[in-house]
Amino acid sequence: MRVVALVYDRPMADAAIHGTAGPVGAVLAGGAGRRMGGAKPGAPLAGRPLIAWPLDALKAAGLGEIAVVAKASTALPPLADVVVRREPEEPRHPLAGVVEALRWAAGRPVVVLACDLPLVDAGLVGLLASADSLDAPAVVARADGRIQPLCARYEPRALELLAGFDASGRAVPQVEALGPVLLDVDGSLLRNVNTPQDLAAVAELLGNGARGGVARR
Fold this sequence. Notes:
By secondary structure, this protein is of the alpha/beta class. The protein contains seven helices and ten strands. The protein has a single domain (2-207), classed as Spore Coat Polysaccharide Biosynthesis Protein SpsA, Chain A. The strands form two sheets. An eight-stranded mixed sheet has the order 1-10-8-9-7-2-5-6, with helices on both faces.
């Protein structure tokens, strides 16, 4: 794996892809949401569906086309200006969404965000979209020494490498095996929502105006 040191510059990150034929974006929403007690996408967060937050980050970063990837059985709130792409019902695995997003992207790089990452902002999306991949098949965010495969940019050739993923194995080591470029970021950006308690904690953070930034290195 290769690590790229970053300095957060929101205008530079945003300008890197606005008005260009850059990557497309996808929010992955195929999880079961068992610990949440139901589907995550429509869970209310600060007066809006949870999925609206990562969608906004992709839109604000200027990605030209955006999809939501979910299973046919996934309950989704009303969505505007996005494609809904249905992944197979089985297996239920994070990489199933990544693979389906790459298929939808049809030969274009795709920036993926999990629907339960509401604190990712347009600056981080812009950095993922514009970072030099150094010929690696992916550029992946990392915080506190741990990668987040569902906050990443995947190059078209990652489809061939991930299409036969091990559905019985964890996503992290399988993505690490790709040899991705890593972007070290502030861990607050990658705080995810798995339970009602997580949802309440993030709502409090948002109420305090807390959306983080990329860590300075």
